Amino acid sequence: MSLPILVIGGGGHARVLIDGMLLQGRTIIGYTEMDTGAKREAILGVPFVGGDDCIHRYSPHELLLVNGIGSIGSPERRRKIFESFKSKGYSFYSFVHPSAILAPTAQLGEGVQIMAGAIVQTGSSIGDNTILNTKASVDHDCNIGNHVHLAPGTTLSGSVHVEDGVHIGTGATVIQQIHIYKNSIIGAGSVVVKDVMAGRTVYGVPAKEVKV
Ligand SMILES: CC(=O)SCCNC(=O)CCNC(=O)[C@H](O)C(C)(C)COP(=O)(O)OP(=O)(O)OC[C@H]1O[C@@H](n2cnc3c(N)ncnc32)[C@H](O)[C@@H]1OP(=O)(O)O
């Protein structure tokens, strides 16, 4: 029997996840919000159950968590949520939308979120707590780390290596065999033709480092 799900967060990303999990027929107990101030509306019939602290009312063995926190740059908040609840013994559900296409040899970490229309080709691996957002495409033999966000419509060519904590913006394209080092940000619509060093922000066609 599959365990019921509790969603952390009630913003746009959480709503898309809830929509997809209801399509899969999963039972969702409710969703939480960091700010417990006001009572919130149900999302697609899924009730608000309180602040993130209320997760401790449930034993780690009786449910699975879903990280509903989105990110538009640094994934720090998503990473903290994931690591904090993992350290308390909770497990995260790996969501794969029914319309996603995964090669049989693709490897998925814990708590990955493979959204509608995303594709993962043969020999590729996706790390823990990583989002492949709507129509993101990962070609053969890519290695994607933990807490990465491939925003909607990103395209990775073959044998691309993306380290932990990277954000690749909406519609960006990465050519083959590029290495993107940890915690860097690739701007929306960029074309990445050179390796990107750790912690840098690059954008444009071809993508260049932003001077600060
Ligand atoms: C479902 C979802 O919604 S998921 C969310 C998906 N969203 C994304 O992926 C967003 C990705 N973020 C970006 O592309 C951002 O623009 C960043 C991170 C590259 C830069 O952000 P900021 O540092 O805030 O830059 P800011 O907006 O101040 O712009 C600075 C300059 O860079 C330019 N610029 C910003 N982003 C880009 C880009 N992607 N490509 C080309 N130029 C850009 C701006 O036009 C501006 O130029 P100007 O000084 O001549 O006016």
UniProtKB/TrEMBL annotation:
Domain PglD N-terminal, residue spans: 5-84
Residues the UniProt record annotates as site (Increases basicity of active site His): D141
One of the record's GO molecular function terms: transferase activity
Active-site positions on this chain: H140
Annotated Pfam families: PglD_N
Gene3D superfamilies the UniProt entry points to: 3.40.50.20, Hexapeptide repeat proteins
UniProt: acetyl-CoA binding residues: H149
Keyword entries, A-Z: Transferase
Superkingdom classification of source: Bacteria
PANTHER family: ACETYLTRANSFERASE, UDP-N-ACETYLBACILLOSAMINE N-ACETYLTRANSFERASE
Annotated protein name in UniProt: Acetyltransferase
